[in-house]
Design goal:
heterodimer, A: mainly alpha, Arc Repressor Mutant, subunit A, 3-stranded antiparallel beta sheet, 6 helices, elongated, B: alpha+beta, Alpha-D-Glucose-1,6-Bisphosphate, Chain A, domain 4, 9-stranded antiparallel beta sheet, globular, disordered C terminus
């Protein structure tokens, strides 16, 4: 069953790391940006009013949570979104969407009964 | 179409869904206010919900369980944090153990329901914000129909083999 697979694929430690990583607005912003395209750490640092070292720390937290990957390219460190790490959260939201679509359909069914009752 | 839009924010762990119904705001409000109507739609047909408690006042609690095909019961609780009849409702939603006691370590989902009148119709917007991914997993597990679980499992298996 898919939910069991997901649970197995994500240990409690991993879940904690993921949750902590996403609890910070700057880190969420970094994730959003590197999901769209790759950035160097210095490129990211230029976007925020914090030091290069502070941005580097945020990237390290995201890397440990498997939300981004970092690789050395020449003198630059390139940060990219980790597709698989993000997929887990996305996947859960997709399932939640299906649950709520079905709930909305059931509400519509209940409301439709009123009309049937009103008929002569 | 009942559902008109869905917004999923992976980074913020939040979810919102907008639906429209052929009924007025007061009528749609009843599907939340009346526990007998609420339990007809909250759980899927294979995991029907039973609300044992439903204190529909600010600070009031609701206690419910969902019964699976093999008789397994999954329990949850709500705490109503805002009620402005008939168009605005907010509640905290959490998991409970077999005795109905809240299980705190899984976190709490914050849900907001807004109803707006359209011409002869009602637009309902639900926003859910989650504390953690684990909590979303559990929520999905409880809300999902058996048939849908199997279908999703098959799709996953296909993708994994592709």
């Amino acid at each position: 069953m898919v939910v069991d697979q997901l649970r197995r694929s994500l240990s409690d430690d991993e879940t904690d790391r993921l949750f902590q990583a996403l609890a910070d607005a700057t880190r969420r912003d970094i994730v959003a940006r590197v999901t769209e395209g790759e950035y160097s750490v210095s490129g990211l640092a230029a976007l925020y009013t914090m030091s290069f070292a502070a941005v580097q720390k945020h990237v390290a937290v995201l890397e440990r949570a498997s939300l981004v990957t970092k690789e050395k390219r020449g003198r630059e460190q390139i940060v990219q979104g980790n597709y698989e790490g993000l997929q887990k959260a996305r996947h859960l939201l997709d399932q939640l969407e299906m649950i709520w679509r079905q709930r909305a359909d059931r509400i519509a069914d209940i409301l439709a009964e009123d009309d049937e009752r009103d008929l002569p | 179409m009942t559902v008109v839009s869905v917004n999923k924010d992976v980074e913020a762990l939040s979810f919102s869904i907008v639906s429209e119904f052929d009924a007025d705001v007061k009528r749609v409000w009843q599907v939340w206010e009346d526990p007998r109507q609420l339990e007809r739609w909250w759980g899927p047909p294979t995991w029907p919900a039973t609300f044992e408690t439903h204190e529909f006042t600010v600070g009031g609690k609701a206690a419910y369980y969902m019964t699976g095909p093999d008789g397994t019961k999954a329990r949850g609780w709500w705490k109503f944090t805002a009620i402005n009849s008939p168009d605005h409702l907010e509640f905290d939603d959490g998991f409970a153990d077999e005795q109905g006691e809240p299980v705190d370590d899984l976190g709490i989902t914050h849900a907001t329901v807004k109803l707006e009148p359209l011409e002869n119709r009602t637009r309902m917007t639900i926003t859910s914000t989650f504390d953690s991914e684990e909590q979303m997993q559990k929520m999905v597990e409880m809300g999902m129909d058996e048939g849908m679980r199997e279908a999703v499992g098959q799709i996953d298996a296909m993708l994994a083999n592709a």
